[in-house]
Amino acid sequence: KAGVTQTPRYLIKTRGQQVTLSCSPISGHRSVSWYQQTPGQGLQFLFEYFSETQRNKGNFPGRFSGRQFSNSRSEMNVSTLELGDSALYLCASSLVGGPLYEQYFGPGTRLTVT
Amino acid sequence: AQKVTQAQTEISVVEKEDVTLDCVYETRDTTYYLFWYKQPPSGELVFLIRRNSFDEQNEISGRYSWNFQKSTSSFNFTITASQVVDSAVYFCALSPGNTGTASKLTFGTGTRLQVTL
Question: Does the CB of A2 have a partner CB in chain B at under 8 Å?
Answer without folding.
Answer: no
